[in-house]
Amino acid sequence: MSIISIFSGKYCNEEIAIKEIIAISGYKYLTDSDFVSKAAKLSGMSEDKISKAFSSKTSVFNQFTREKEKSIAYLKLAVAETLTEDNLIINGFTAHLIPSKISHVLKICLIADMKYRISVAVSSGVQEGDASKVIHKSDEEKIAWTRTILEKDDPWNISLYDMVLPTDKMNSKEIADMVRKSLEKDVLKTTEQSKKAVQDFILAAHFETILVNEGYYFVNAEAENGEVTLIINKNVLMLEKLEKELQAIATKVSGVKSVSTKVGKKFYQTDIVRKYDLEMPTKLLLVDDERQFVQTLSERLFMREIGSVVAYDGESALNIIKEEEPEVMILDLKMPGIDGIEVLKRVKQTNPKIEVIILTGHGSEEDRKKCMELGAFAYLEKPVDVNLLSETIKKANEKIKQSK
User: How far is CA 201 from the centre of its chain?
Assistant: First the structure.
């Protein structure tokens, strides 16, 4: 018995080809949404957050939350646990999470040339002038995904698949028949070795979820017969200390017989390494038009393990909130354009769960009363003691956790 994985371009008539493959194989059909649902149950994260892992756009807060890395780790575990079954068709981004050493997986790519894809898009109701843009946007998502998962900039690269099938040159029946013939080959049958490879994948994926929850989002795991190799992909000042920490975690993971570490290709790329502090919010937005002040404040908070994103005006802040939804916002009152009171009012109307701390140097008692009536968490004045501000942020985060 075998497994089929499918990755395809948008508007390649891929749906018709996949229906034929399902019909000719009789296999159970799974899509990204199935694995998102399973990953959400495994992680406790929302399905919406996990689905964002497939987007080429990464949240501005991800350098602090690492939600994308966490989502991918749990998607990997969801896929790994599912591979204990046979007779599956896995279609979508998650198809690329299956390691190549699992030999009973037939990896298929369905693609067509751009002219054909545009014609399919137009026939489905997309305006001709928009068709190319829609297809390119979809391809950008897939390029970003294969770059992240496989370090490949070409999602249609023949080296990634067993079969690259042109839907503009083959009809769906021809495609399905070619797949059927491939499934009959002994090389795609499940063997004891390929079953062990699945168990190794499950162990490595499980280990990665533990690591990312501990803040080691830059470490990948590989396993073979219970022997785990950890690949460190970010530069660290004390490598030996990190290796000891990782080995200590490994001793607590069931099924691990031994553990070794090595540096990966990305080891020499610098990045922010921040372990999680559950007492502080991971999505903090600072809004103030005084650039030097807010940049200095951001740096001083970061020294206290509080990461933040900065906006210099009310309109920018509202745009960030629309796309990202921070947990806590520190907001100045006097700003050009949309002032702080108006920003507070709109935030509490549209995103009432965001806790807003007012920090102003030009306020009045009347402003304080109005802000508190509108739902501000606290009202502080400049110059502020950074320890007092840190404590206020901590209390706001406690309120958020209690509401959850």
Answer: 20
Angle in degrees, CA 32, 33, 34, rounded to 5: 90
Structure tokens at 323: 């796309």
Who has greater pLDDT, 30 or 268?
30
- Dist. CA 214–CA 278, nearest whole Å: 11
Residue 25: phi and psi, rounded to 5, are: -95, -35
What confidence tens digit (pLDDT) does each residue in 353-390 have? Answer: 999 999 998 888 999 999 999 999 999 999 888 889 99
pTM of the model: 0.80
Is 153 exposed, middle or buried, given 0-12, 13-18 or 19+ CB atoms closer than 10 A? exposed
Q: pLDDT tens across 175-193, in order?
A: 999 999 999 998 899 999 9
**Domain 3-188 has what CATH class?**
alpha beta
| pLDDT at residue number 279 | 59
Whole-number Cα distances in Å, 90 to 18, 81, 109: 10, 13, 12
Q: What are phi and psi of 161, to 5 degrees?
A: -135, 160
Strand partners, 221: 230
Give Cα 60 to chain centroid, integer Å.
12
- Please report which residue ranges of 3-66 form alpha helices under DSSP H: 14-25, 32-43, 47-51, 62-65
Contact 368, 379 (CB under 8 A): yes
DSSP three-state, residue 57: coil
Question: If residue 147 lies in a helix (H) or strand (E), which one and from where to where?
Answer: helix 128-150
Q: Which tokens is 383 given?
A: 């110059």
Domain boundaries of the chain, sorted by first residue: 3-188, 214-263, 284-403
Question: What would you report as the CA-atom Rg of the chain, rounded to the nearest whole angstrom?
Answer: 25
Place of tokens 């490595």: 204
Who contacts 310 (Cβ-Cβ below 8 Å, separation ≥6)?
Answer: 285, 286, 287, 288, 294, 295, 298
Any idea of the CA torsion for 32, 35, 39, 42, to the nearest 10 degrees? 170
Q: Looking at residue 59, what DSSP letter applies?
A: P
Cβ burial 371-391 (10 Å sphere, 16+ → b, else e): beebebbbbbeeebeeeebbe
Same fold, 3-188 and 284-403: yes
pLDDT tens profile 276-330 = 445 566 789 999 999 888 888 888 888 777 888 999 999 999 999 988 889 999 9
C-alpha–C-alpha distance, residues 367 and 12, integer Å? 58
Which fold does the domain 284-403 belong to in CATH?
Answer: Rossmann fold (3.40.50)
